[in-house]
Request: fold
Amino acid sequence: MLNQLTKVIVNFITIVKRGVKIFRSRDMATLSSREISTPSNPKPNQTKPITDSFACPYCQSHHFVKRGLRKKKFEYVQLYLCKNCHKTFTPHITKGKHYPLTIIFDAISYYNLGYSLEKACQLANQNLNQRQVKSRSGQQSSNRRYQQSSPISPATLSSWLSEFKDKCRFLRMRQFAMKKYAPADMVIHATLAHRQLYRFHFHQAKCELMIQEDFKHRRFGPLQEFLEMVPAECPHQYFTTGLRASETPLAFSKKQMIVRSKQNYATRMAKFVLQSVNDRRRRHEALQKFMLYNDSVTVATEVPVYLTRDDLEHMQTQLGFEMYLRAKNRISEGQEIPTKDGLPKLITGHIDFIQIRNGQIHILDYKPQAKKQQPVEQLTLYAMALSRLTGLRLFEFKCAWFDDNDYFEFYPLHVLYKPAKRRRRKRITTNEGVYIINQNDRKIENLRPRSWQ
Reply:
């Protein structure tokens, strides 16, 4: 009995020393790791618009300049002047709102957590009360007087819920989630000190409803168990010494695969949420928070995963997955032979979004200017790591990267496993158009179907 008690105390002290802290669901607006500036990660250029695809809404031109600020009751909105059509516009696509969009999104998120209309308005008013409005002279003044004169009312919040119900599809699940969890217990939060601070979030109510109520998702129980144990069982020492998935020397052959390009709910959500962000460093946090609380498929964000050398060797020798070491000039199946000696000792990473939908687990990564990037290796390693940690087959996973304009998805199994006997097709017809099967082992030559080009 004494030994068991000693182990519990040692584990608790270890977790505290490693900087892991678990929060309740009400703690939503904390600082994300992506907002912290370090000498190795300096602040980005704050003069740029939030999205790289930002353009004039009248003529779609990218030639514009700043034209002062528009003063509203609770905030200042940046104005832009188009050099082509000479019209003035703002970055907001949602017009005519009396309150800042960040406050509106917070109020909706509080309601979807299970709070009543009155309680959600009270919490949103507290955020509004703490918000500071910066004048053009640089002086800061509290907006407490605005909150007292015109607080958010339940009727106002109800109108927002009705207006944005197509973006808040968790509303149809809310009443069932409230029967299982209290608002303070619906979402698990944990701050992980992995070289920098990461905010792990797990919506346990949504995950449980999707797995128990939908027959095609019932086999994903191991994923739920893994996500529940992340705050207590995550080996934090791995993430201070391991190699990041985005920096790994491993490469995979891109032959005989396609990357489907589309515009879906994720791109629409990104365009809708990012209009409320004033700082480019807050893009990930704002998008993760809104999707986790308000959509019907996102179950976790900033999920820590890892792969050891033993895992890689097992996948290479027992499962037949093809892995190659990245060469300086060329990555070729003919020139490089997979070797155990060159495998990394440890690979770690943090998954931006995990979704459960359409009978599969989707691993998503938000990438600004997604059409110019191809993070196939990074996402494939995420899928491999999550497969090993949950015991689920790689067949159950899909990977994708997206921004506010594009969504690119692929099957990680098609990247790793190349059957000897396969039907050698040159093209595949999908709903988006006709894709040419990739024949380049180093990169994907066509991210869009032929009908788009």
Observations:
- The longest strand covers residues 346-357.
- The mean pLDDT is 82.
